[in-house]
Amino acid sequence: MRPAARRWSHAGEATSAWLAGVTCVAGVAGVAGVAWPALAHAEDALDLEASLEEPVVTTASKSAESAGAAPGRSTVLTAEDLRVYGLRTLADAIDFLSVGAVSANPLHAVDLGARGVMIPGDQGNHFLLLIDGHAMNDPLVGAARFDFGLAVPLEMIDHIEVLTGPGSVLYGSNAMLGVINVITKQAKHWSGGHVAAEWESPKSSRVGAGLGWEFELFGAPAALTSAVGYERLRGASFDFRPQDYGIDITSQAPFRFSRSGPATGVWGGVASHSYTADVPTALVRFTAGGLEVGLHASLYRRSTPYSNFDALSDFDDPDGFELDRALRVDVKYTRVVSPILKLSARLYGDSFDDKTVRNVSTSGACLADAPRTCSYTTVGSARWAGLELQGALDWFRDARLVTLVGVEPRVLSVAHVSDTRDYATGLVLLSSTDVIHAHAQTIGAYLQQQWEPSAYLSANAGVRLDADPRFSPVLSPRVAAALRAWKEGTIRLVFSSAYRAPTYLETDSAAPDQLAARSLQPERVRSLEATVEQKIGPHRLFVDVFRSWWTNLVELHELSAAEVADARARGEIAAFGTVSASQFRNISSIDGYGIDGGLEGAGFTRRLRYGLTYTAAYARRVFADGTTQLLTVTPSVFGNARASWDFGGAWPTAGLALHWMGPRVVDGAYQATYPTLQTVPSQLEVRATLSGPVPHARGLSYRLSVNYALNDRAPYFAGPFQRSVGLTAFDPTARVAPDFAPVERLRVLAGLQWDFLGSEGR
């Protein structure tokens, strides 16, 4: 049941906020149109010189181009931005600096959304994450990590390119919300040795070291950059409101949420042992002539006070954890064959393993009369390798007409298994479920044409075809045009599309209470976007309007009683003891539209830098029966603002950044049976940072930062049985009030970095 009154009430609030955002952006544009000429006239020669600069991006077209000419909204987040604003994770950088993208943190894997669309719990598989152009998303679960799990030492990041909007035309699967490319430093920009250490309250620390070295190899120039790092989180103590769930009617005993002490039926209290993370990582990049070799190894082990996957998991359990291990190798060779032809070949290989352990101590969890603790363990692995062959033809030798063509065959192997074990002995208690062993070959081919017939007009058109044995071939086109219609003013129009291949966990997973998916199709998205940009001196104003259509969203569908009976008769689920079952299906679609805009620039001989962005989007999920819902977790309005001032010399640079989001519907709110729709209020985060050189200490620099969040709850239910599936056994009059995932409201950061033997240390 989807309550229409609540749905339309919330939709009205979102629409009002959206209209307010349109008015705000339009007002900023109007004021800027009046004020900018005078402001630009007042700028000195250095600022006028800066107006000629524009960020150069490579992600959108796999070739260097200005951000204004790129086929989509591209934001460049520099290493200087990360330092000045005290940012430590990719999610923080996106929240405080990017346009149109936003994150949400359930204390598990961080969710990332763009332009009003976020899919909670998707493991990041609707954004394509690249590191130096190497795709991170795996075929088993599609995972991409935007928190500490990114596992790239902060000091080695040169810049981050965030492309919002569908991007499958050159990259294939997963680029539905956009593409994020983390680009590491070259040795010439990071020469010498580097050591860094940071501490962030309450119990987080990080150390890292690296080397940038330019040398000659067999008489030719070569370079090596390398870094190692270790992130350690022993996080805050969180206070969860105690929730009394009483007696488990299946065992007639109180629910137990801990392995020690008596069974009380009460979940919650102070969690002080289980918010942890350990992230060792190593990254090496070697270049010599046209050869480039990259190696990236990482481990990401984390635990959280509660689980939003298994309702009955023990509370504040330090022995429950999730683990990712990855090893990635990339070898690329590029050769300029002639003034018009450049060829490249890239061979890559990836190994990714994940493991999850959740311990459950409540009565009956182990299907035994005697109370004991069960460990639910899932183990997965993915191995894949590919070869990308690419050719670029610059027909007139001046980048006016460039054709890019490429082909990318890939082989892969995935495996997965779930087991139930006795916690004390490690013995397997039940037969394995979710068993997957799959091997496949896929291939993608793409063609892109860039054309700049004049200084006032540029166009970009491309298409990619991907073939996967699990579904029909997928075609992903994109067409974009940019018109420099007036002095320093640009209009850009973009049509783009993308798809997400179902993960192997979605297509091949089966259990006694879950049917294997049949004929699961890829998710698809199409998008239209129009942009107006205006530059005046070192200042830039832009406004985007966008519209998107999503189809074939993959969701876990709860079968009806008739469907359960049919599946039982066919022998697809257990014949006895199964009263409910589920199956992954293409269920719903999403319609969305919105506007985002921003103002950024510099002044006072570039000592002042500032930026402001705003996004207002209305997206709704549409079901087969025509009913709709606003998306959960995703804010309809959000934005950020920032400003920094460089005092010069040995004095610090001061940075102030703000990130805010409007009200959000709690994940699972539509499945829960509370009398009103569960939401969390607006959120505002403020971060103030001082950074600069340590006086009289050559090569030594520091940064100090304070981050404060106004509200202490995120839009995720915390605690067992918060959705209807867990509440059916209870008296509705004795409903347990919900609690939500906590937010660390106050964080303090202090760090030192020493650069030596290179240009930074002189």
Topology overview:
Elements: H1 4-42, H2 45-50, E1 56-57, E2 65-66, E3 73-78, H3 79-84, H4 90-97, E4 101-104, E5 111-114, E6 127-131, E7 134-135, E8 157-164, H5 168-171, E9 178-184, E10 192-200, E11 204-217, E12 220-234, E13 238-244, E14 247-248, E15 253-254, E16 266-271, E17 276-288, E18 291-303, E19 321-338, E20 341-360, E21 374-394, E22 401-422, E23 433-454, E24 457-468, E25 471-486, E26 489-500, H6 504-507, E27 514-515, E28 523-536, E29 539-558, H7 561-569, E30 582-603, E31 608-622, E32 628-630, E33 637-646, E34 653-661, E35 664-665, E36 679-680, E37 683-693, E38 700-709, E39 713-718, H8 724-727, E40 739-742, E41 746-756
Parallel strand pairs: 6-9, 27-30
Antiparallel strand pairs: 1-2, 3-8, 4-5, 6-7, 8-9, 10-11, 10-41, 11-12, 12-17, 13-16, 14-15, 17-18, 18-19, 19-20, 20-21, 21-22, 22-23, 23-24, 24-25, 25-26, 26-28, 28-29, 29-30, 30-31, 31-32, 31-33, 33-34, 34-37, 35-36, 37-38, 38-41, 39-40
Regarding quaternary structure, how should these chains be classified? single chain
> How much strand?
over 45%
CATH architectural grouping: Beta Barrel
Give a quick account of the main beta sheet: strands, pairing sense, barrel closure: 22 strands, antiparallel, barrel
Shape: globular
Low-confidence stretches: 1-52, 724-733
Q: Domain count, please report it.
A: 1
Estimate the mean pLDDT confidence: 87
Q: Any idea what the CATH superfamily is called? A: TonB-dependent receptor, beta-barrel domain
Count of separate DSSP helical elements: 8
- Mind telling me the C-alpha Rg? 26 Å
State the secondary-structure class: mainly beta
How many β strands by DSSP?
41
- What share of residues is helical? 10-25%
In CATH terms, what is the fold-level topology?
Answer: Maltoporin, Chain A
CATH C-level name: Mainly Beta
